[in-house]
Design brief:
It contains nine helices and six strands; from the N terminus they run H-E-H-E-H-E-H-E-H-H-E-H-H-E-H. By secondary structure, it is α/β, with parallel strands linked by helices. The protein has a domain at about 40-140 and about 185-200: 3-Layer(aba) Sandwich (Rossmann fold).
Length: about 220
């Protein structure tokens, strides 16, 4: 853990991290050299940290007990023009439609929720954010596609030999299934980037709406 934080730091960002595990916080602070806040209430923690230019939730929104409260605070604590990056399992995926509750990315009880990107976008639009980019075909999604089929088969075996065979067969099976997973938004995970509307954008939009004639009766 800490790879994303380290890369962000190397890219020149001043990094704040919210982490529930105390040992992880100590590692992030001492070894990675970033500000790590130990908290079981991320929505309160991010509010206390103040404004940011970028907020990233890299495969952790599905672990939050109250994701909507966190998203509200994240939107509030983004600077105008700031970016919110979210990567998460995709409940609209081909794998979930085929396997249902047996889909490995359901991963209950570790995963507390699976949020469709359409619902996420609608909620964030109401909070003043616009969708800039969304994909289920990036490198991360492709690896999760393969993992899903491998783990699904591995779950039927307890022996190391059986699991190894299932791992290999699942990897082979994932190749033709990729034809469906690369269509539309069928990948096992999505990466979505949202941007907070700037003050100038809102002002221009309001000004434009004010000038728009309204048809009378």
């Amino acid at each position: 853990f800490g790879t994303f934080s380290l890369q962000a730091k190397k890219a020149g960002f001043k990094v704040d991290v919210i982490e529930m595990d105390k040992r992880c916080c100590e590692f992030l602070s001492k070894s990675v050299g970033v500000n790590a806040v130990n908290s079981n209430c991320p929505e309160q923690a991010i509010d206390n940290l103040g404004k940011h230019d970028v907020i990233a939730l890299w495969h952790n929104i599905e672990h939050l007990p109250n994701p909507w409260a966190f998203l509200t605070e994240a939107a509030k604590n983004l600077n105008p023009g700031g970016v919110l990056l979210i990567a998460a399992p995709n409940p609209s995926s081909f794998g979930f439609r085929v396997l249902g509750p047996l889909w490995p990315h359901v991963d209950a009880p570790r995963h507390l929720n699976l949020i469709p990107v359409q619902l996420l976008t609608k909620y964030l639009n109401s909070a003043g954010l616009e969708l800039v980019m969304m994909t289920t075909k990036d490198k991360g999604a492709r690896s999760w596609n393969r993992f899903g089929w491998q783990r699904f088969l591995m779950n039927y075996f307890s022996s190391k030999i059986g699991q190894m065979a299932a791992f290999i067969v699942g990897g082979i099976l994932s190749l033709p299934l990729a034809l469906w997973e690369f269509k539309g938004v069928n990948g096992s995970a999505y990466t979505a980037i949202y941007q907070k509307k700037s003050i100038d954008d809102r002002h221009l939009r309001e000004k434009s709406q004010a000038k728009t004639p309204v048809d009378g009766p």
